[in-house]
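Lab notes, practical 5.
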Amino acid sequence: MRNQRHIVDYALRKRALLRQYRAGTVSRAEVCDAGPYLLRAAEYHGEHIEHPCPVCTRRNMSLVAWVFGSELGQASGSARRPDELDRMTQLFSEFTVFVVEVCRMCRWNHVAISYVLGTGGTGPGRSRAQQAAAP
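Output from the prediction step:
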């Protein structure tokens, strides 16, 4: 079970971008620009979601969680599955997760939500610096 904190929902930004796209002030190439790495992450690490893509209306959407944090070392900036996030929450004191929705058909992508996970500096997931400073 994850203990999410510092949650940021990007739904208003998404609505504004889609409004601009539908008004013709933003091109499809600007909103459907997922790169090959993101598309591959959506295929192998993403969670399939049932709602249709807001651009092409197909039901080929995935949510991909990207993790960032100094404590993660080389794992920072990588895509993770939900079960991996659960394990990481117990191992690290703090890291940020950005969840990106991706359509693998038209390449639409947008950050849906971000939040912070981790032990918060208590328990076995304390950082190495915190563990070294402890008596």
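Observations recorded by the TA: Residues 5-117 form one domain. The chain is about 30% helix and 25% strand.
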